[in-house]
Amino acid sequence: MVAKLNEFIPDAVRLSQIFSQATAPTFFLGAIAAFVSLMTSRLSVVIDRTRVLNAIPEDDQRRAHLRADLERLRRRAELLNAGILSSLRGGLCATLLLAVIFLTEFMGFKYAYGAGLLFVIATYFLGVGLFRFAQEAKISVSAADEHL
């Protein structure tokens, strides 16, 4: 029983191999976290500007024209939200990939079945998030941003 338990617990060399294999998905996960943080900060700015425009009274003729920008801001918020959610899905896949790598190595299996597929799915979701971010960036600058 003790001998089987010793075979199950990895030694320092095997742990080192496990950690080296987990490096790439860990950096990928860190990049996703930074990207989500960037999009979240942009979403916060969009929401703040939307609140400011919604606070303009209807009878304020001098600034009422600025409210026309609300539709563009809504679209930006939708794109950023979609990008955040897609990137988070990629992050979940990368986290699952890390778990698969650790469990596979810890259990002593030769191959991590599905690891490649998980990486492709994570990359796909991050790509969708980047595409949504590019769409938002394309419509983000407007002359209306200069006024208020």
TrEMBL record:
InterPro entries: DUF2721 (IPR021279). Pfam families: DUF2721. The chain crosses the membrane at residues 18-39, 79-103, 109-131. The keyword Transmembrane helix applies. Keywords: Membrane, Transmembrane, Transmembrane helix. This is DUF2721 domain-containing protein.
